[in-house]
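Marked as duplicate of an earlier ticket. Keeping the data here for the record.
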Amino acid sequence: MGGMIKGGNAFVPTVPLRVAVRNGLDVAVLLLTEKGRVRGDADIVFHGAPAHPSNAVRLTGAESGTMWLDVGLPLVEEEVVRVLVVGSVENGALRDVIGTSVEAFAPDGTSVARYDVNDAGGETAMVLAELYRRAGGWKFRAVGQGYLNGLVGLVTDHGVDVAQEGQAPQAVPFQPPAPAPTVAPPPFQAPTQAPAAAPPAYQAPAAAPPAFQPPAPAPAAAPPPFQAPAPVAPAPVAPVPVAAGMEEWGFGAVFEPYTQTGRDNDVITVEGLPPGPVVVDLAIRGDGYTGLWPLTRFNKEGDTLVNSTEEDFRGRVLTRVPENGRLRLRLKAEGPWQLQVLPLAAATRLTEEWGESRGPDVLLHTAGTADLAIHYRGDDNLIVNLYELAGHDDPTCLPTDENVVNEIGKRRETVPLPEGPVIVQLEMADGPWRAQLKHVEPHSRPSTGDGLARVTDIRTAQAGRAWWSRR
């Protein structure tokens, strides 16, 4: 089977699989419930506990830099919905490891899934891949989610109480067994000599493993696909009178939102937009990889806007319309999607009330100095940037951003905000979060003398969109 790209997934047969992890990594396996957490220490398989009590997962040895796992999918307990394959290094970083990959083989030696990790950085631990339940069967997903805080951070995010144990499981290599051919995986069988404390050797079910069956059709109650309206070119919107006492927004043009729907991979082209920063709202129904990039005038991918393996992805990101008013975006998706291009004035406005959302977003702060409180309940990166617009008079581009949060896992963060107008960008937030303003001071500049053009009242621009109801 050909290699997958990051975020890719495919069905695998529900049979005992042999999984090879290359190249010289320390390996652990976490068995997770639907809450994304282990039930206890027994759900961590590593060198100190090389077999799960259910006998569904076993580390069987290392050879020539490859660690082998036996994953008996028919034996995985019903409570377990995800099996994570984790790799880590004790010295250096994962970018120093050449040829990192995960490959799953059927009992007859046929490769059924493979993922080559080619974008590792300074992380010292990574969820390389996962096997997860889907439509009555199992799928393999190429994950590639790294952790700068190492194995401790990774296992803590999945319910392991490291502090209570005194230390995280130190995944160190097995002592290699007798050499075996490296061209093809060794046949699926129990180790010739198991440790005394290990559970009995894996026994395949009495019945012959079932042949691979495609997933059953989705139930009739599944939500209907997006209905694609005819594309409408954006049109300028006349300025809206500003009501007394309401904040004004004068950065960037205001235009009618552009909406397009489709399915799977596509290139989206929007003509006639005013040059400058805009908000892109993307919603996808599916459990595959989601990627979004602006295309340059040479038709090459620009900086990544979305890079997610989140199921049913939804989020808002910032991008810039070129001087010619023609925005082109490359989308990678599996399933139906809807994409909207919105003016900055339509972004969500921060208030002193708590509100909940999920995924990346673009928020507006228009009051005086304040503190921004964010509670993040995701397992992956949380990255927050600020764009301070005071004194910035070029609406065709944004000022240099200030990164104020860059953390992994569940967080409670409070950061000071300067006087508005400020764009608060949640660049990465693959999980639920909530936010509010605290200690808000009045704006030092009167609403009629801040030097900003009166383009629109923000509340009018946001009409028809409930603050936190879009998830």
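See parent ticket for discussion. The two ends are 37 Å apart (CA to CA).
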